[in-house]
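Reply to dn_fold:

You asked what the input looked like. This is it:
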Amino acid sequence: MDPLSKALFANKFAGILVVGPDGIELANKRATQMLGRSLEQIQKAEIGTLLSFDREDNSLQHLIAASQESVVRGLARHSEGDVIPVDIQAEKCEGNGDRTVLIISDARDRESYNTLKQQFIKRVTDDLRSPLTAINGALAILKSGRLTKLGDSVRNVVVIAERNCKRLTLMINNILDFERYESGTIVIQPRRCDLGVLLEQSLEMVKVFGEERGITLDKKIESINVSADDERLPQVFANIVRAAIARAADQSSIEVKASDADGWADVTVSYVRDTDREASQVIDPEDDWTMTGIGLINLDMVRHVIELHHGTLTLNEKEGADRHSFWVRLPISMV
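and this is what came back:
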């Protein structure tokens, strides 16, 4: 089997069956899972006992003919009696021993994807609408001229608009970086930076999220030199603090502490966990893509960017502990 065929056969999302003149010859791991049978059991079975679809019969010939028109909707029959709705595609391999390749995908995955896509669009729409409304309101007040003689009031309106612009920028950068993360094209451009300054920038980005729930940010930040991408690292810490805000109890405080020891810069973001909030509102650190009431956070992507800086991200969450924390370690720049 050539390298490309091996890679396709190792597919973890679709079941693949190779059918020859004498029956089923090969099945990948995903196919054995979907059918609840070993390779030997699958090889001894007839196609019609494994797969069924709405045609005249369940023969391989009808499956190939139906696949030429469109993807066939059918059922995969598990050995324990369960049936799984599947999409089936059959491709005839001419000149290769008259073999047919069946590609079987779980239709529930498609439905789950569509649901997540709808939730994503709704969440993005809601999250973008809030800061845009605030910015639009601030600009409308300035345009009216009512604050011309009120210096402090004008400043406050501008501050609101500025904060919400930063909020929008963070959301958009997260979406763009997620695309780069998925395609493996995130690149950092490290230079000597003051970690304290970068943390101050990140806290300014997310300050408004904490204020919405009465959460204060308690800073204990030292000036530490690190080699870092001064655009991506503030965004990384902003997302970590947002994750803490999503988990923290209302009207509580989040401590952001930066210190150096043994050639490492340690940043901890600690918080009091809100045990009363619904599970759907709380970030699961194992989720690749988490949607919360305060925006879109990808902790796996955050961890990846930190690792590009030769650092680590750890979630310290102990049952019964008063405070939990995110802990980031970065190497100190000696240059």
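The chain has a mean pLDDT of 77.
Hope that clears it up.
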